[in-house]
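can u do me a favor
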């Protein structure tokens, strides 16, 4: 076999060296590829974990945004948000309802023009377009850096607070007036008793003189009328509920309607009675509650001189704040309604808009209901009628199983003031 030439041997060595270098490079490249593949897999896992964390974070943020939006829309307080330039950028449903304007018309408007156009001054507090008294609260909207980013305006419905204030003011006013009236009534009753005594003596001495005896009888009748008036005044000054018990609702209403029948029949009035089955009986002094109903029925009948519809309703409810069970008795009419400037004085003694009235009917109603630890609410619209609602607390610990169905109070024992 022929030996390779020196030149050929040299080329063979070079070729072998090249193959070894190529193998080493291929091995290095393979190792680098495997390292890169492993690193890429780790990056894929890290990216997948980051994407999952981002997805969860976005989901939580979306849920939080939806939750906060639901809370904002559920608030009874109106919320209006303005940006740094004073333009409205957000509001909730309550703000729309209180202002009587849609959200689309609010967004983008200057908040100052919204307040001036839709919230006129009501004498110390703004009035919503629907007549609801409001209170306004402003707060600065700040970003994460603590810098001012806009304004938050809160609209609070204070109608319940106003009603409570009026009720407390009325109670204080009536208490002061009642103390004075009570003293006067007692002072008047002393000489009145003497007048009645001498009138009875005159009637006895004038038995043989019928004409003059009639004068003495007129004196006695006038004294009786004055005594009834004083008795009603004392009811206004000393409200109490001495004989409370369970009494059937239907009988109380029937008796009250019978006592006031002369006014409803003569006035061409249609009477409707709606008694809920949930109120079979009422915890009350039946005589006093009948007087309340009679006075309210007469008041409603006199508000409809040309006739109309009178509706009596009884239902069961719970107080919003305490959850205490209460009974609601309402008397509604379709009369002329009550002027707004008269409503604050409705329950004042001697306040009346009728020439023939004494102004004690509603004062007695208020006093008796207060004595039952209840309250009277008035809802009236001029030209459409009025509704007087008596709200009486009802004890839960007692059951109306043994209802007193005896009619302990006759028509003669009820004094009605118109």
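np, heres the sequence
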């Amino acid at each position: 076999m022929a030996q390779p030439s020196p030149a050929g041997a040299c080329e063979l060595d070079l070729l072998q060296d090249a193959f070894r270098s190529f193998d080493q490079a291929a091995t290095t490249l393979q190792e680098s590829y495997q390292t890169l593949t492993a690193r890429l897999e780790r990056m894929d896992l890290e990216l997948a974990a980051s994407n999952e964390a981002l997805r969860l974070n976005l989901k939580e943020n979306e849920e939080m945004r939806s939750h906060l939006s639901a809370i904002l829309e559920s608030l009874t307080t109106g919320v209006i948000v303005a940006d740094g330039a004073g333009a409205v950028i957000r509001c909730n449903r309550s703000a729309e309802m209180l202002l009587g304007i849609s959200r689309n018309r609010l967004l983008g408007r200057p908040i100052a023009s919204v307040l001036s156009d839709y919230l006129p001054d009501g004498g110390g507090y703004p009035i919503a377009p629907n007549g609801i008294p409001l209170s306004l609260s402003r707060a600065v909207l700040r970003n994460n850096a603590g810098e001012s980013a806009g304004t938050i305006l809160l609209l609070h419905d204070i109608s319940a607070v106003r009603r409570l204030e009026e009720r407390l003011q009325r109670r204080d006013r009536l208490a002061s007036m009642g103390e004075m009236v009570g003293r006067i009534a007692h002072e008047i009753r002393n000489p009145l008793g003497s007048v009645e005594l001498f009138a009875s003596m005159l009637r006895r001495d004038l038995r043989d003189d019928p004409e003059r005896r009639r004068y003495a009888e007129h004196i006695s009748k006038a004294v009786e009328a004055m005594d009834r008036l004083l008795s009603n005044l004392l009811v206004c000054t000393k409200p109490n509920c001495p004989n409370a018990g369970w009494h059937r609702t239907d009988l109380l209403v029937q008796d009250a309607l019978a006592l006031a029948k002369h006014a409803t029949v003569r006035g061409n009035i249609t009477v409707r009675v709606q008694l809920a089955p949930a109120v079979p009986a009422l915890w009350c002094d039946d005589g006093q509650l009948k007087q309340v109903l009679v006075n309210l029925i007469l008041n409603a009948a006199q508000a409809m001189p040309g006739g109309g519809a009178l509706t009596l309703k009884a239902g069961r409810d719970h107080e919003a704040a305490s959850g205490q069970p209460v009974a609601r008795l309402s008397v509604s009419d379709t009369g002329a309604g009550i002027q707004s400037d008269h409503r604050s004085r409705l329950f004042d003694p001697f306040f009346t808009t009728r020439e023939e009235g004494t102004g004690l009917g509603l004062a007695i109603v208020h006093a008796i209901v207060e004595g039952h630890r209840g309250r009277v609410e008035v809802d009236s619209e001029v030209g459409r009628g009025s509704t007087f609602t008596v709200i009486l607390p009802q004890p839960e610990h007692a059951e109306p199983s043994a209802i007193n169905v005896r009619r302990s109070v006759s028509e003669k024992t009820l004094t009605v003031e118109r």
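Confidence is low (pLDDT under 50) at residues 402-418. hope that helps!!
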